[in-house]
Design brief:
Number of strands: 4
Number of helices: 0
Distance between the termini: 24 Å
Order of helices and strands: EEEE
Structural class: mainly beta
Helix content: under 10%
Length: about 70
């Protein structure tokens, strides 16, 4: 599954530094190995302090939501 042509979440701003975070990773993972449903994710990180944010969605037409880690 390619994430490049799909809509992305708005790039978050770091709550500590106030600067725009950088995209650190994207991918798809299963909630439970072999039998779980797939979750598409995008991870962002602050280049100054290292604070991170992760956005997830289960379906391609679903809106991105911030994951509660």
């Amino acid at each position: 599954m390619s994430l490049e042509n799909e809509t992305s979440p708005e790039t978050p701003t770091c709550s500590r530094c106030g600067i725009e975070m950088e995209r650190r990773g994207t991918g798809v993972e299963k909630t439970v190995p072999l039998i779980g449903s797939e979750i598409e994710y995008q991870q962002f990180g602050c280049p100054e302090c290292g604070q991170g944010a992760r956005f997830e969605r289960r379906e391609q037409d679903e809106e991105w939501s911030r994951a509660g880690l």
